[in-house]
Amino acid sequence: MSSAxxxxxxxxxxxxxxxxxxxxxxxxxxxxxxxNEVGKESNFLTVIPGKxxxxxxxxxxxxxxxxxxxIAILLINQHLADLIRYKVDSYTNAFPAxxxxxxxxxxxxPEKDSILKKVRRLFGE
Length: 125
Prior knowledge:
This protein is an alpha/beta fold and 125 residues long. It has helices at 3-10, 20-28, 54-67, 78-81, 85-90, 114-122; strands at residues 13-19, 44-47, 71-77, 97-101. The longest helix has 14 residues, at 54-67.
């Protein structure tokens, strides 16, 4: 097996950076993972307004995208992605894929989605 396919075989988890309602729903769906392995304690960050800092969101983003080799998809609330937009827009790796999702209080805006912007540039729009 090549090193690329070995690397992809490890990527089996979804990670989440989201508000409490979104994380709760995803955990109820079975997405959560908690481990004793250093650096891989959990695959989610619950962002609580007024308590969670932008630095904590950035650290979780960096950990899920570059620090871990078991994450296939990172789900992030779009309003939280806006807080670290420079990191989200500059991320170019194929894995983990970053998907911006709406939250209960913040609707999805396709004009802000970094993936959609890249697709539009690809097709010359």
